[in-house]
C-alpha cells in the first residue's frame, strides 16, 4: 500500500518558548532526553487552534503567527532542513498532510527557529511540535 | 486520502473516578489514568479517534499519553484535536504495540485551572486494530 502519511510508532510533544519577540531572532531548541537518539520521520507544528496552552502555561502561537516562523533542523552539524516554513507543518493548513522526513537523527540543541516577521506573534508565546519518530539502537 | 480498514475497534470512556458527587475530583494538570482495556493487549493499534465529552473544556486543552507495558512513552502528550474526524481532514495513522491503558492517561493543560466532579465523561477514545477473528477477544 502506498501512503502519503507517516505511520506513527512514537510521538513526543515538544515546546519551544519564543521569549521576547524580535525580528531575525533565532531561538534554539532545548536538549531533551526523549529525543536524544531518534530517527524522526514526521513532524507536526500545532497552533493555538489545536493546543491552546503549552505545558509551561504559555499561550501557543496562533495559526497566523506560524507564518512568521521558520525551522532549521540539524543532523550533527549539518543544517539539513534549513528555514522550513513552520506554517506548512500544521496539517490543518495543508489538507491534513503530515510532512514526512527521511529518518533524521535530529540534533536538537543545534536546531532553531527563526522569527522572520513579528506579525501575529506575542512575547512569551510557545511553538508546539509533535515529533513522530522511532528509537535508534544505542 | 488514508483509509483505515477497521477490522475491529473498541472504545474506552475517559471518565473521572470517585463517588463523592459534591466535590471535584480532577483538576487541570493532573493525570487522569485510563481504565483497563484488555481487548487491545498484545494487539497492534492502527488508528485512534477521540470524541470530546459534552461538559468539558474544548479538545484544544486535552492531551493523551499512551504507554506500553514497559512503561515507555508511545505517544507523549498527543493533542486530541488531531484525533477528531474533520479537524484535519484525515486521521493520522499509527503502529502502536502493547499499549497498557492503565499506565496511560489524559491531561488537561490550561493556564487557569478547571475542576471536574466524579463521573465526568472527558472523552471517548476509540482504538482501531487490524486484528479480528470473529469474536471480541
What would you note in describing this structure?
The complex is a heterodimer of chains A (138) and B (137). Chain A has one helix at 63-66, and strands at 7-8, 10-17, 26-28, 38-46, 69-75, 78-85, 99-104, 112-115, 126-135. In chain A, 3% of the residues lie in helices and 41% in strands. Chain A starts with 6 loop residues before the first strand and ends with a strand. The radius of gyration of chain A is 14 Å and the shape is globular. Chain A has 138 residues and is an all-beta fold. Chain B has 137 residues and is mostly beta strands. The model of chain B has no long low-confidence stretch (mean pLDDT 88). In chain B, 0% of the residues lie in helices and 39% in strands. In chain B, strands 1-11-4-8 form a four-stranded antiparallel sheet, with no helix packed on it. In chain B, strands 3-9-5-6 form a four-stranded antiparallel sheet, with no helix packed on it. Chains A and B meet through strand 1 and strand 2 of A and strand 6, strand 7 and strand 8 of B. Strand 2 of chain A pairs parallel with strand 6 of chain B, so a sheet runs across the interface.
Amino acid at each position: 500500500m502506498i501512503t502519503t502519511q507517516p505511520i506513527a510508532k512514537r510521538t513526543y510533544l515538544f515546546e519551544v518558548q519564543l521569549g521576547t519577540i524580535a525580528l531575525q531572532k533565532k531561538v534554539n531548541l532545548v536538549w531533551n532526553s526523549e529525543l536524544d537518539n531518534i530517527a524522526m520521520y514526521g513532524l507536526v507544528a500545532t497552533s493555538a487552534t489545536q493546543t491552546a496552552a503549552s505545558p509551561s502555561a504559555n499561550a501557543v502561537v496562533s495559526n497566523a503567527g506560524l507564518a512568521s516562523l521558520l525551522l532549521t533542523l540539524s543532523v550533527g552539524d549539518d543544517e539539513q532542513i534549513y528555514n522550513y516554513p513552520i506554517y506548512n507543518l500544521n496539517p490543518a493548513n495543508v489538507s491534513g498532510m503530515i510532512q514526512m522526513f527521511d529518518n533524521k537523527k535530529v540534533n536538537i540543541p543545534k536546531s532553531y527557529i527563526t522569527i522572520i516577521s513579528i506579525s501575529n506573534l506575542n512575547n512569551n508565546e510557545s511553538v508546539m511540535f509533535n515529533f513522530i519518530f522511532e528509537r535508534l539502537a544505542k | 486520502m488514508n483509509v483505515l480498514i477497521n477490522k475491529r475497534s473498541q472504545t474506552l470512556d475517559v471518565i473521572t473516578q470517585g463517588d463523592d458527587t459534591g466535590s471535584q475530583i480532577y483538576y487541570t494538570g493532573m493525570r487522569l489514568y485510563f481504565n483497563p482495556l484488555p481487548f487491545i493487549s498484545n494487539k497492534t493499534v492502527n488508528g485512534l479517534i477521540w470524541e470530546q465529552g459534552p461538559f468539558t473544556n474544548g479538545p484544544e486543552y486535552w492531551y493523551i499519553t499512551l504507554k506500553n507495558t514497559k512503561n515507555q512513552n508511545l505517544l507523549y502528550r498527543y493533542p486530541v484535536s488531531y484525533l477528531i474526524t474533520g479537524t484535519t481532514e484525515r486521521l493520522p495513522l499509527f503502529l502502536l504495540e502493547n499499549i497498557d491503558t492503565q499506565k496511560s492517561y489524559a491531561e488537561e493543560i490550561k493556564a487557569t485551572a478547571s475542576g471536574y466532579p466524579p463521573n465526568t465523561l472527558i472523552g471517548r477514545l476509540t482504538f482501531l486494530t487490524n486484528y479480528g477473528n470473529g469474536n471480541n477477544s
